[in-house]
Amino acid sequence: MASYILRRLILMVFTIWGVLTVTFAIAQFVPGGPVERVIAQLQGQNLGATSRISGGGGDIGSAAMSGSEGGSSYRGAQGLDPKFIKSLEKQFGLDKPWDERYVKMLSDYARFDFGKSYFRDIDVLSLIKEKLPVSISLGIWMTLLSYLISIPLGIKKAVRDGTSFDSWTSMAIIIAYAVPGFMVAIFGLILFAGGSFNMSFLPMRGLTSENFAQLSLFGKILDYFHHLILPLFAMSLSAFATLTLLTKNSFLDEIRKQYVLTARMKGLKENQILYGHVFRNAMLIVIASFPSTFISAFFTGSLLIEMIFSLDGLGLLSYESIVGRDYPVVFANLFIFSLLGLIANLVSDLAYTWIDPRIDFESRKV
Q1: Alpha helices in 95-206 (DSSP H)
Q2: 0.90 cut: is pTM over it?
Q3: Exposed/middle/buried for 142, CB within 10 Å: 0-12, 13-18, 19+?
Q4: Where does the UniProt annotation locate this protein (predicted)?
Q5: Predicted local distance difference test score (pLDDT) of residue 190
Q6: Which residues of the chain have pLDDT under 50?
Q7: Within a 10 A sphere around the Cβ of 338, how many other Cβ atoms?
Q8: Cβ–Cβ < 8 Å for 175, 334
Q9: CA 34 to CA 94: how far, in whole Å?
Q10: Alpha carbons within 13 A on the beta-carbon side of 54
């Protein structure tokens, strides 16, 4: 097992390197970089994600000024002092060749040094730590809620396969999976948070109330979970549907195997067979889905939900950084997301061997 873990750790290093390299290469051609963003702000313009630089290149790839006097490769920079443009390039580290910046980025990230945000005047790591509690709250509670509901429901559907219960729950699950989470969130706001129906018994924004600090301990816990109801419901609907069907199909495959028939012939009770024999084998594939479920809930799955409910977490931070061309934050988020995803997959593989010692990863090449 030690050699397998070592191979996976080495593979992680090359995977992270590949992700950063591809992202850095793409960033060379992304229009509307940080320098042009500052120029647009100085001129009172709203620089969106689709704005383009004259000449077709991005800030990172074409940061050098044109040779003409007062000219510049940045849109809207005509007439600005060339020294001012160069000072901006130096501030953002764009005054150096791309290969030098690439090597420096890899060296810094190997030491978990992500630099400072371009526009927030704060260390990127400190900024991520500041936003982390919101994403942790959403990710952990969504994953816990999904598994607590989906696994028992999936088992019951497998046991009662083909019955009316299985049919109508499957229909409900398919509908839940088809409805986007952000639509559920908007509907929840309209219906339960003071929308068109004037029912405002659920909060519409934030994870806590304005008077949170003055509440008692029990009041704080109640207020916190009160704010979580709508975001969690909107986020967990599709994950709940996927995990339920995955659990059902996994249990159905195991129930039809020969060892289950043998156990029944020996006179074992159905619950003994189901939870003493089938459960352990059927849960392997469910455990395999845990990393993707958790990482999705922790980061990407919460993006639109954070925006709708004004939750200042990592999902919203990533979106704002991409639109605002805050490259240190974008690259740091990508690095951390990828690293945590790879670690979660490794932990999942190790959990396989803990649940079923028959599984041996030593014989695998990767």
Answers
A1: 98-110, 124-159, 164-178, 181-192
A2: no
A3: buried
A4: Cell membrane
A5: 82
A6: 47-71, 366
A7: 18
A8: no
A9: 10
A10: 10
